[in-house]
Amino acid sequence: MRMETAEPLKSRTRNDTRARLVHVGTEILSEKGFTSTGLEEILEKAEVPKGSFYHYFGSKAKFGFAVIDNYEYLWAQKLTRLLRDPAVPPLERIDNYISEGVRGLEKYAFRRGCLIGNMGQEMAALDEEFRFRILKVFASWADYLGDCLAEAKQRADLPADFDVGEAARFFWFAWEGAVLQAKLERSVAPIERFRRVMFKYVLTGA
Amino acid sequence: MRMETAEPLKSRTRNDTRARLVHVGTEILSEKGFTSTGLEEILEKAEVPKGSFYHYFGSKAKFGFAVIDNYEYLWAQKLTRLLRDPAVPPLERIDNYISEGVRGLEKYAFRRGCLIGNMGQEMAALDEEFRFRILKVFASWADYLGDCLAEAKQRADLPADFDVGEAARFFWFAWEGAVLQAKLERSVAPIERFRRVMFKYVLTGA
Fold first, then answer.
1. Is residue B148 part of a domain?
2. Looking at the domain assignment, is residue B1 inside a domain?
3. What is the ipTM, given to two decimal places?
4. Read out DSSP for A130-151?
5. Is the pLDDT of residue B15 over 80?
């Protein structure tokens, strides 16, 4: 019995410690970015000793990549849930995504922004490898949104000459700019402005 | 004679040292932001001893405000020159502003972005006073652009129901997002995408 439970327990503990570090890292990096986050802060919040951290990750940079992997995975779920929902018309799905973003900003009192956006801004201080990794995440988001816009175009909710790829990329960097401005103003006003301008001028059949 | 020249020379040196620190700070903070820039790096590049720095600024935060003052002043000149040029139609002035931004990004090999955007992203790590100061700079930029858009509307280059204030604010945060993405991609493609989408969908008479 003891041997049978020991291994699963041990491996559960190992996975828990690693997962807790990644979870805490995702939270803190969404607020402060990578460079200005000290390792001590992560260890303290996760209640994990430094030795454990290095056992799982080897370096702060490798930890950063694990946090990006986790964030990408969480966002892939969120974008799948919101932007691929066949029961909702495609442009309404995008509106729902924006509404969920508004709620997220309010929930965390405008402290948390986009982890990928935060790290993207730190490029001067980060490794080239981070740059490629972050571009890959942005490209995958443009794909999710592009698919949704292509559906809208197919339904004639967008004009026949609408450039889906161009609009999807534009959407994301304007979104990142809006999130930053919302954090700065501590108000959802920039996100609501983003929503109004996007739907009035860009994502419109007129 | 000696007494007459001594004072001006001394004061010229004093102003030069302070100005050099602010100039170097503006360059470095446009690349790396405030938090991840060490004082040593600024002192070394400006070739100024630490004592001098504290003599002029007292603290890194006060230096940060002096750099923002300088950046705001430089941008007020740039926006006046480009967005108030009576010889150029208002929407073309905005196009010119974007072109100058493209040249600036290329000139500094995509290392330098917007100092105000950079510092805006660091809010989690910075003082409340910085937040208000940065919002004030953004508000002044929205005013410059809003005036230009109002002129375009008056000439019927924009529709009669065009919301100038809303579009001006949207323009700036989408611009900040585009600059960040350009730095990340090391390409002007995001800026050109910004330009195309803005002029095709938002800044258009249709």
1. yes
2. no
3. 0.86
4. HHHHHHHHHHHHHHHHHHHHHH
5. no
- Tell whether the model's pLDDT for residue B8 goes beyond 80: no
Q: Indicate the Cα dihedral angle B99, A167, A175, A177, nearest 10°.
A: 0
Q: Tokens representing A174?
A: 């304007």
Task: Determine whether A88 is exposed, middle or buried from the number of CB atoms within 10 Å of its CB (0-12, 13-18, 19+).
Answer: middle
Domain that holds residue A111: 9-204
CATH of the domain at B88: 1.10.357.10
Domain count, chain A: 1
With b meaning 16 or more CB within 10 Å and e meaning fewer, what string describes B92-104? ebbbebbeebeeb
Residue B2 lies in a domain: no
Cα separation of B9 and B5, whole Å? 6
Chain B residues whose CB is inside 8 A of the A184 CB are 120, 123, 131, 134-135, 138
pLDDT tens per residue, range A147-199: 999 999 999 999 999 999 999 999 999 999 999 999 999 999 999 999 999 99
Report if residue A2 sits inside a domain.
no
Answer whether A111's CB lies under 8 Å from A180's CB.
Answer: no
Q: Report the residue from B36, B175, B196 with minimal CB separation from A166.
A: B196
SS (H, E, C) A34-46: CCCCCHHHHHHHH
Helices (H), chain A: 2-32, 39-46, 50-57, 60-83, 90-107, 115-120, 128-154, 164-185, 189-197
Q: Is A110 helix (H, G, I), strand (E, B) or coil?
A: coil
DSSP symbol at B34: S
Say if CB A60 and CB A39 are below 8 A apart. yes
Which of the four pLDDT bands, split at 50, 70 and 90, describes residue B14? Answer: low
Cut 0.90: pTM above it: no
User: Which distant-in-sequence residues (6+ apart) come within 8 Å of A91 by Cβ?
Assistant: A152, A157, A158, A199, A203
| Chain B positions touching chain A (beta carbons under 8 Å) | 31-33, 35-36, 111, 117-118, 120-125, 131, 134-135, 138, 166-167, 169-170, 172-178, 180-181, 183-185, 190, 193-194, 196-197, 201-202
Give residue A203's region: left, alpha or beta (phi > 0; psi -120 to 50). Answer: beta
Name the DSSP class of B20: H
pLDDT in tens, A33-50: 898 889 999 999 999 999
Is B36:A35 a contact under the CB 8 Å cutoff? yes
